[in-house]
Structure formats: C-alpha cells, structure tokens
Amino acid sequence: MKFVDLNDARLAYEVSGEGPPVIFVHGFLANSTGPYYAAFKQELAKSCTVYAVDMRGHGETVADSRSITLGACARDIVAFAEALNLQRLPLIGHSMGGYLSMAAARLAPDRFSALALLTPAGSQGQPNPEEVVADFMAARRDAALMHQRFGAMFTSPPDSAELDILRQAALRLPDEVAERWIREEWPNSNQTGQLPEIGLPVLSLIGALDVVVPPARQYEDALLMKDAKIVTFSREGHMLPLEKPVQCCREIMRFSVDLGLQPSEHV
Question: To pair with 56 at 20 to 30 A between CA atoms, which of 6, 78, 143, 175?
C-alpha cells in the first residue's frame, strides 16, 4: 500500500504489473486496493503497470467527510496522475469509476490517452424515492440484507466470503456520507451535456443484464462521445469486471493495441 497527499486528502493506491501504465478507479462503495478487484487487477497486470487508487471515503484513502463529492474525486484523479508524473495514459473505471473517468477526462484531456468504461454509472443522476434511500441505509445495518443486495448485482451470485469483502468495503464509507450521496450527490450529478467535449478514444463495456445502471443509458452516453467503441456482454451484468475479469481485460487490450498503446502480443 502506498499513499500520496493531495487536495487535502491522503489517497491510498497500489501498483502492480509491468508494462505501459494505466489508472484504475473502482465503483461506489468499493475500493481499488485490496481484494475487491483482485482477479481483474491480476489479469490487467499481465500487460500493464496498474495504478489502483481509492477515492475519497473509500478503501484506505483519508479525507474529511464534508469533502467527499463527485467533483472532488474527479479532481483527485487528475492530481494523482500529476503527482506521480503519469502522462498520456489510459484511465479505466468501473461503475462510479466510469463516471469519474469521464469527468477527469474533461478536466484534463491532455493528461489521458483513452478511457475504458466498465458498466459505467449514467452521466446524469435521477432522484431516489424515499423507500430506496431507506432500504439502502437499512442494508448497511444488516449483513444478510446487504449480501442480498450485492448478490442481485451479479448474474452468478458469489459465495459468502466474496460478499463479505464487498460488504466490508461498503462500510468504509461513513453512514452520513453514504446517505448524502444516495439522497443528493448522485441524484444531482449531471455531465451529459459535456460528454461531447470528450475527444479521447473511449471503450464502453456494457452488461446487457445490468440491474444497477440501465444498459440503454450506458449506450446513449457512449454515443454522445466523439470516438467510442461499444462492446456488449449479452449474459453479464453490472459486476462485469468481477465476474468476467479475463474477458474484460481482453477487450481492453484489444482496444489498446488498436490505438497503438500496447504491443500486439498482448492481445
């Protein structure tokens, strides 16, 4: 585990593998470091140097709870790349990490070379009914209920040990921040109108059975960007990089080779 201090936060990150560098950003209630995405990172590290970074409120990153916003996280990604002198490299994001990757690319288009969005969160949030907020918060107090909610995001539900990893990661985000995000932060997010500003090559991997982010919304967002390739996995859902890490990385490597960012032997 490594740390870097920036933007009044202490970001935790891990580095693995050899080859061209990439930055990986996790989803909401997840973390890039540790075992959460272990199989995906291990596969990606066969061809790349993977910088896996935890966002504010997640994993081992330390920040004041009042500063944990989508905007701050996007700025952190840019500052992280600058602090480590990482220039013109791909940015890979799952779910919330996909949303943040798009936002970071708009903030610093010259810092990154491409985006790989894995079942990305929609570019515009929607209000959550009170019953959804109540259920979300109730699951944080009930292990069985949280296991059930996470399990429903998979097309092949994982065993209890993996669900425990997901639950422990989710509980790293303080309750008051989790509730604020589900009530305000996500519903009020909107970068749809700015997506055409993204001129980088984009790979969007969509799970046709995604029950978290509507596949149609992911598709619409991808089409708003100038240079997007869309790949749909017909039998997978929102947890695509966890359930199909090899297949995800294969698509990323093919995309990278096509862009000249990876040698062809990595396909």
Answer: 143
